[in-house]
Amino acid sequence: MPDPALELRAQIRDLQAQRRSLESKLMQPQPMLAASLIERFLRSGGSPRTTPAYYLSHTEQGRSRLTYVKKEDLALVRQHCTAYRTFQQNLKAWRQVGAALQQRWKQLQQAQSR
User: Fold this and answer.
1) Residue 4: enclosing H or E segment and its boundaries?
2) Which terminus, N or C, of the chain has the lesser number of Cβ atoms within 10 Å?
3) How far apart are CA 42 and CA 51, in angstroms?
4) Per-domain residue ranges for the chain?
5) How far apart are alpha carbons 113 and 53 in whole angstroms?
């Protein structure tokens, strides 16, 4: 019968490697915008446009705000929004790995206490 502590140690090592990888990604400095890029086809009068206009949707003092994005700034703004979204996804994954690690450490403690 295999030792459950050996399997738990292997899982802990794997989770630690995942955490280090995520931490490395999170520590990479890059410009970010905490906003969403929105494409709209409406003019101010409500009539449709033939080409989209782009806006940043962000929160200021608890309210959603739209800020127009010039066409020449669109690629850079899109890159900064994507960087923020990726950072948030990596941070969420890092928290999940941390919770899984904590659970495995408790399981290892119980397995060794028997």
Assistant:
1) helix 4-26
2) N
3) 9
4) 4-112
5) 63
